[in-house]
Recover the amino acids of this structure.
């Protein structure tokens, strides 16, 4: 039995566009003389659709889309993911289509308490089999089932199946890929059945789907792995496949994911170009590299926005980086604008030059970049990292201005790793940017370490407190000074209001992307 | 049997502060010679706590807080809402405490699929009774049960109870109060038992809790209604109460809710003062009135930020409003700052003066107000309304800058109703502000109606599309022109990215506050 795994990159809501991709994949499957073509979860609609599911326009389009596929009368078994609307209920379904008939519809029957909140939208289906080519195929929609610890309710279902098919759209976070392969291998081995796993690929808003569809043998061996972060339509025949090894998740994996995230965010939004404020620091340098990789050098603009506190070195570093990347570079000084504000704000007397003036400079930069964005149709990419966002070391409407925080989910220490990866073959990011001490350059001689512990201490404390929910006491026992830990926790707790207004963050490192940290807006614990 | 209803206003996470309020209420109950004192759901912690539940600091504080109450050895039955932590589980519990003992703990056993997502945090308990004074008291935590349509599983439980107690922390939206009273009356009547309903009061972040605790007779009559939008500790004896009528939800109700929301947002954040940009328009005028009511005239600052396009009338209207309110008023012109930007952005040639320059002016205003906020410790209140937020008729980092959107949940047509309510006795908001055509004054002669349909048409279309999920076709059938409906839908669909970055919105009008509109960030349906 030949199976075509159709790992496509849909745009959420764009039924017409997704239909074209689906049709192309079916034609490829037909030319491969395949028996079945399998698409990812909700592929006709794109995943995750959230409240679009409740939108009548979408309902009609989905129903038309399914009709169009039937009308095409394709002589092949098609397993297509799409919602099914019935009275007041919606199901997350797989339509088994052959020629002009829906042979069967199987609705998702197993939900975990997932962060996308599927339970808020979908009703429960009941398990059923697909009988194709004298084989009983067991079908799970989503990878909720794989990641759950208790499979006992489905023992008989699994046992009766000749083959297990998992049709999923499961977003990526660092470490999840390996975990997923292990869980599916265990499942396959435990029931001694082959398992095929089909996943969505592409960036959809903040979420990134890595693709990497799988075929696993009865012994739990990897037989096939689809392309990572790329569309991939491949026809496989399980009996002709041999054990292979997975590509593994290294720093390049993370980088490629961010590149795809930026590319799809901008292109799916209908834009081509990105503008980035280049401070001469490492964060904006890394974002520029990612954007160039995602969009091409002709579509990226770097802007240096020097103030009286900006060193000549910073401007030169930004310029050198732009030259290395082959991107356009502009310089717009902010000093005169800054003084025009101070004149209105302090008509007499000297400016105080504290945090109000520091933030003002950052916000002037935000305004200038947004002006370019509005006038010349560039998407402004914000360049803050996760260490800054968690400690509130950023200026709302200033350096946080933009449509997307590209590295907002990446700790500063990982930013350095990514920058070194970019430079692996030749110096793209000028060495000086990597070597110098991080600084916001908002006052004379300012360094990040005046306000924050060194990142080599800060990041592990943040990971322990935020990602692992460790208490102050437990973190102190890890070997950090109580005073420092306390200061970091205070910074996190007092900056929730900033995180409510920063741009959407490409989620790639953290485990629980959408609900990672839901805190009351106003609360008091410290 | 005397019951003290303790309708308190807790700060989320502030166990020490909440403990003091709880102790005061217990002392009041003791002096009233009450038999039981009943607090709202999770009152020791404050509601909703979200991920604070997973925080070890909170866990320890809650356990200490409960211990402190036991140590006080109060000679009265106390029903106190607090989480119970057990291994890896958390329960939403009522502790029945008397003297130095926890007589019983009842854990929440009925959850709806609520927008706060309680199911993500809490494990299920089992129904149980409180036996006080020879009475079997049935206990429900939260009003999930009241708002569910199916009570059949709890028929026996309800029948066996002598009295039903509903301990809740249920946020307010316009219309919910009446619905709640009706549902509880139906319940009481249906089972022929008295029902007592205890609710939290206060603003907690975006959410507002109205209080208004209730006692309902066996016949479904209202016997007691606690204060609305105020703390209220009252001792009642059901056998001494007579039917009365509810206060009802009129426009004053909405206004009082917004006032409480602003007051608690600012005070619970540890601030005293608010600054508002006064454009001379109705939105900022209304927000200034609400802020003055919430904080007192000495704590509100109005700032006029005129550009070359600002009419003299607008400045005068803003000044007159400030005088009427007795608040401080400043004028900071933005023209020179605007020109200093244009000089850097267009070193040669004339500025184009399109949306880029319009947004720039709005953002200069945002910067100036944030400067005052940073320098003088004012909270900046944003003044956008719901009609603007839904159509994207606003400038990110400009007029949307601020810590809180006070009227972001209120349609423009309701803004007029609220303004007229403010002026019911004398002219607080100058008549000219109410009479003139709405304008952003970002270019010569600009009117809102150049970009949007009249609000009397826009608002019903938005309500139909967003609040009621009606399709284009259905809205056209309501009697609106297809072209206009299509334009409005397009505006809504294309401005999702703006709503991702606007400040938190005080939720008071809409039914589903936290998840009202969860859309993919990037999608395509129009």
């Amino acid at each position: 039995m030949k199976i075509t795994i159709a790992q496509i990159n849909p745009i959420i809501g764009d039924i017409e566009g997704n239909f074209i991709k689906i049709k192309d994949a079916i034609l490829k499957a037909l030319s491969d003389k395949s028996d079945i073509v399998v698409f990812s979860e909700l592929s006709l609609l794109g995943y995750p659709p959230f409240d679009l599911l409740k939108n009548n326009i979408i309902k009609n389009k989905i129903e038309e889309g399914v009709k169009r596929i039937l009308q095409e009368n394709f002589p092949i078994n098609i397993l297509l993911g799409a919602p099914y609307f019935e009275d007041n209920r919606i199901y997350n379904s797989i339509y088994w289509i052959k020629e002009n008939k829906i042979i069967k519809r199987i609705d998702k029957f197993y939900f975990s308490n997932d962060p996308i909140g599927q339970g808020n939208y979908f009703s429960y289906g009941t398990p059923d089999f697909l009988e194709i080519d004298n084989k009983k195929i067991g079908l799970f929609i989503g990878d909720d089932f794989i990641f759950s610890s208790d499979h006992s309710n489905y023992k008989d279902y699994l046992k009766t199946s000749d083959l297990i098919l998992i049709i999923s759209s499961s977003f990526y976070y660092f470490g999840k890929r390996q975990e997923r392969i292990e869980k599916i291998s265990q499942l396959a081995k435990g029931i001694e059945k082959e398992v095929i796993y089909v996943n969505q690929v592409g960036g959809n808003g903040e979420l990134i789907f890595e693709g990497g569809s799988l075929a696993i043998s009865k012994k739990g061996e990897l037989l096939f792995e689809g392309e990572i972060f790329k569309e991939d339509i491949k026809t496989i025949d399980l009996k002709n496949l041999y054990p292979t090894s997975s590509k593994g998740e290294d720093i390049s994996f993370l980088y490629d994911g961010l590149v795809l995230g930026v590319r799809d965010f901008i292109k799916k939004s209908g834009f081509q170009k990105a503008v980035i404020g280049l401070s001469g620091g490492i964060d904006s340098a890394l974002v520029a590299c990612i954007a160039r990789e995602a969009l091409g050098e002709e579509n990226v603009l770097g802007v240096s926005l020097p103030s009286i506190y900006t060193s000549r070195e910073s401007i030169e570093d930004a310029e050198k980086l732009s030259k290395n990347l082959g991107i356009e570079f502009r310089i717009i000084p902010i000093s005169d604008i800054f003084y025009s504000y101070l004149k209105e704000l302090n008509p007499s007397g000297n400016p105080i030059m504290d945090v109000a003036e520091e933030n003002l400079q950052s916000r002037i930069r935000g305004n200038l970049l947004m002006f370019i964005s509005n006038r010349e149709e560039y998407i402004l990419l914000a360049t803050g990292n996760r260490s800054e966002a968690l400690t509130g070391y950023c200026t709302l409407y200033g350096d946080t201005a933009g449509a997307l925080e590209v590295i907002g989910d990446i700790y500063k220490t990982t930013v350095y790793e990514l920058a070194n990866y970019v430079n692996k073959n030749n110096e793209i990011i000028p060495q000086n940017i990597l070597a110098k001490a991080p600084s916001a350059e908002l006052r004379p001689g300012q360094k990040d370490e005046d306000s924050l512990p060194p990142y080599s201490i800060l990041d592990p404390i943040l990971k322990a407190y935020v990602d692992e929910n460790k208490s102050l006491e437990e973190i102190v026992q890890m070997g950090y000074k109580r005073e420092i830990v306390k200061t970091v926790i205070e910074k996190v707790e007092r900056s929730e209001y900033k995180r409510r207004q920063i741009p959407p963050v490409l989620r790639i490192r953290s485990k629980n992307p959408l609900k990672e940290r839901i805190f009351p807006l106003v609360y008091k614990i410290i």
User: Anything to note?
Assistant: The radius of gyration of chain A is 26 Å. The mean pLDDT of chain A is 93. Chain A has two domains: 2-249, 255-452+495-499.
